[in-house]
Design a protein that fits this description.
With 253 residues, the protein is α+β, with helices and mostly antiparallel strands. It is built from 4 helices and 15 strands. The strands form 4 sheets. Strands 8-7-9-14-15 form a 5-stranded antiparallel β-sheet. Strands 1, 2, 4 and 5 form a 4-stranded antiparallel β-sheet that branches. Strands 3-12-11 form a 3-stranded antiparallel β-sheet, with no helix packed on it. Bound molecules: magnesium ion (MG) (2 copies).
Length: 253
């Protein structure tokens, strides 16, 4: 049975905006510092320091036992990579950084995938199309539409380029819990999904693979990789539903 979707008041959405702006500011800071030679542990330190400076708590640390503050997933890693002093960024890598915080009891969650130094045009296109698909999904965040309209819009866009949508992991509602109903898959399912209502806050997060959609989890129990070893990209925003245009709470603008 699925959980009820919790609608948020405008006062709650204001706090969630602040939480998400801590996330957005952190991601921007990390993006500006990403270069060959630094470790993913260093990124994790910068993220957690910034988060605590902003009176917030890193949301992923300790979540079901996750050891880091940041999820850092390189190249064929899809999501949930564990920060490590031993993992050094190299020219030509891509790195997905996913960050969440809790501020005044509410969560923010957002992710970006960024190039390390120079990457191939083929991989550049994967990043571009994945980010575009996130915005195709966000365009559907309107009262009266259904969750499946978001899923379908993301899938349609990426499949035009021959990419595939990860099935095993999905977006989610967010609020005073990091993960709430509804689930937001990035692919169409033949089932009735919830209507979108004002006060919903949705974390939309396409995980898009260049090759097969199939993934597996490494022996560390966390790191998700593509089964064919080809690259994967991940972008995420937390978005509030209003009577009018969707509000991207984790906007970096
Ligand atoms: Mg996230
Ligand atoms: Mg999320």
């Amino acid at each position: 049975m699925s959980q009820p979707i919790i609608l948020k008041s405008s006062a709650e959405i204001d706090i969630m905006f602040q939480a998400n702006q801590i996330v957005a500011g952190t991601l921007k800071m990390l993006e500006s510092r990403i270069e060959p030679g630094i470790s993913t542990w260093q990124l994790d330190r910068w993220a957690e320091d910034n988060c605590r400076k902003c009176d917030s708590i890193p949301a992923f640390k300790g979540y079901r036992g996750f050891p880091g503050s940041l999820c850092v997933s390189i190249n064929e890693q899809v999501v949930h990579g564990i920060p490590s002093r031993k993992i050094i960024l190299h020219d030509g890598d891509i790195i997905s950084i996913d960050f969440g915080v809790c501020f005044k009891g509410y969560f923010g969650d957002s992710a970006i995938t960024v190039p390390v130094g120079n990457i191939s045009n083929e991989v550049k296109l994967l990043l571009q199309v994945t980010e575009e698909s996130l915005y195709k999904g966000i365009e559907q965040v309107r009262v009266g539409r259904r969750i499946d309209d978001i899923s379908t819009a993301v899938q349609k866009h990426v499949e035009k380029f021959g990419y595939s949508v990860v099935r095993k992991f999905v977006g989610h509602g967010i609020g005073s819990n990091l993960h709430e109903a509804p689930e937001i898959p990035n692919y169409h399912r033949k089932k009735r999904t919830a209507r979108i209502l004002p006060g919903m806050v949705l974390a939309i997060e396409p995980m898009i693979n260049m090759g097969t959609h199939d993934v597996k989890v490494l022996k560390d129990g966390w790191t998700v990789v593509t089964r064919d070893g080809r690259p994967s990209a991940h972008f995420e925003h937390s978005v509030a539903v209003t009577e009018g245009d969707p509000v991207v709470l984790s906007s970096r603008d």
